[in-house]
Amino acid sequence: MTNETLSLSSIAATCGVKLIEAKGFEAKRQTCLEAVNAGVIQLHKAKAKVGQNNKCAIATAFFDALVQGGLGKGTAANYLSTFRKAVTEGKPVTEWNPAQSKGKGKGKGGAKATTAKELADKLATAYRDADFEGFMNDLQASYENDEVKTLLEGIQSYLEAAGIKLK
Question: What does pTM read for this prediction?
Answer without folding.
Answer: 0.54
